[in-house]
């Protein structure tokens, strides 16, 4: 299903499944915003810290199941497995792209 993803999202999910922080961060804009677990991370330094912490804590893998593209907005539904209660769980990833980079990501 990742073949239906825009390139930055394909790169992000591929790196996420390999737990490669630098590669996960690469598709994000310098001033990107991520919302996850009730917290908001702004900018690459904060997003990198979030990626390190959540990768260490949960060690998730993501199996993309659905992709809906509407211009720069992309909604992804994925089966997420890892070290958390209720694993695996179906989660939604709402992305906004700008200039070929991830400008916004909300996970829920």
Automatic annotation (TrEMBL):
InterPro entries: NTF2-like_dom_sf, SnoaL-like. It comes from the Bacteria. It holds the Pfam family SnoaL_2. Residues 11-103 form the SnoaL-like domain. This is SnoaL-like domain-containing protein. The lineage of its organism: Bacteria, Pseudomonadati, Pseudomonadota, Alphaproteobacteria, Hyphomicrobiales.
